[in-house]
UniProtKB/TrEMBL annotation:
Source taxon at top rank: Bacteria
Alphabetic keyword roster: ATP-binding, Kinase, Nucleotide-binding, Transferase
Spans through the membrane: none
Species name: Streptomyces anthocyanicus
PROSITE patterns on file: PFKB_KINASES_1, PFKB_KINASES_2
Protein name: 1-phosphofructokinase family hexose kinase
Matching InterPro entries: Carboh/pur_kinase_PfkB_CS, PfkB_dom, Ribokinase-like, Tagatose/fructose_Pkinase
SUPFAM superfamilies in alphabetical order: Ribokinase-like
Length: 310
């Protein structure tokens, strides 16, 4: 069993428009709605790979109800979301059909009361018993303390559960000090965290600040892994075009599944890159194209060792 935490769950709404233009009114040609927030995306991909997953975090209001309803039909996913009085947020992705570019608008999320945050922390401790790994994913809703992830990392480590942290900004900075096993920042998040725009150097700096392993996602160039066991780059065969929403979450699912299956790093990275690219190729944001995934895993992804000590 794997646990994913999404404190700021979302109802992800994707609009397709012929062309997105500022100041203009648009006719939406297609609308899709699905349960979102990074940890829920990670959970769906893990379940599709055959893992049993429990999801927790907060859900409330009508949107929270829609999110929970949407999870009921997903085999392998158990809903352990904690109720909150405020309404779960919506996020809007607007896809420009002409260019394929996506513009993302994320609401802040519900205000979480101190009693609700305490209830979550109690539930989290109970859920950690017996899980093989936990992923802490995404932004924090208002009211949740900025050091929340640091606390959740500490509790997981005390319980002996490997912990992956996928967030940004101050919550990431504070979370690092609690020494997570793995972080998966993108190049911008890593630069913001460390002040270095050179991914190798920035990843090493993030390790010095507390992360055991750093897997930097470099967009179309794939992943850079800096770990105590070595350094690797993993890249898809060619530039993959499509909607990148959820591609990072699929990479997290690949890394986490590889961790609990005790795969060697190169295999974990190949899986993460193949899943990520197959998510970009899928027509619906946050889902992956299984045929493309298998094809990429078979021949497509190149994993190369990098020189230098980890
Ligand atoms: O606001 P956050 O929590 O950072 O990101 C939320 C979000 O944009 O990330 C996912 C894609 O990675 C979407 O499902 C989701 O709505």
């Amino acid at each position: 069993m794997i646990l994913t935490v999404t404190l700021n769950t979302a109802l992800d709404i994707t609009y397709r428009v012929p062309a997105l233009r500022p100041h203009a009114s648009h006719r939406v040609t297609e609308v899709t709605e699905r349960p979102g927030g990074k940890g829920l995306n990670v959970a769906r991909v893990l379940a599709a790979l055959g893992h049993e997953v429990t999801v927790t975090g907060f859900a409330g209001g009508t949107t929270g109800g829609v999110v929970r309803e949407g999870l009921t039909g997903v085999p392998g996913v158990t809903d352990a979301l904690v109720p909150v009085a405020g309404a779960t947020r919506r996020t809007i992705a607007v896809v420009d059909e002409r260019t394929g570019d996506t513009t993302q608008l994320n609401e802040p999320g519900p205000a979480v009361a101190p009693a609700e945050w305490n209830a979550f922390q109690e539930a989290y401790e109970d859920l950690l018993a017996g899980v093989a790994a936990v992923a802490l994913c995404g932004s924090l809703p208002p009211g949740v303390p900025v050091g929340a992830y640091a606390g959740l990392v500490r509790v997981a480590r005390a319980a002996g559960v490997p912990v992956l942290l996928d967030t940004s900004g101050e919550p990431l900075r504070r979370g690092l000090a609690a020494r997570p096993d793995l972080i998966k920042p993108n190049a911008d998040e890593l630069a913001e965290l460390t002040g270095s725009h050179e991914p190798q150097r920035a990843a090493q700096a993030a390790r010095r600040r507390g992360a055991r392993s750093v897997i930097a996602s470099l967009g179309p160039e794939g992943l850079l892994a800096v770990t105590p066991e070595g350094r690797w780059r993993a890249a898809p065969p060619a530039h993959v075009r499509g909607n990148p929403t959820g591609a990072g979450d699929s990479a997290v699912a690949g890394l986490l599944s590889g961790l609990v299956e005790h795969l060697p790093w190169p295999d974990r990275l190949a899986r993460a890159v193949a899943l990520s690219a197959a998510t970009v190729l899928a027509p619906v944001a946050g889902e992956f194209d299984r045929a493309a995934y298998e094809e990429l895993l078979g021949h497509g992804v190149a994993v190369t060792a990098e020189a230098g000590a980890a």
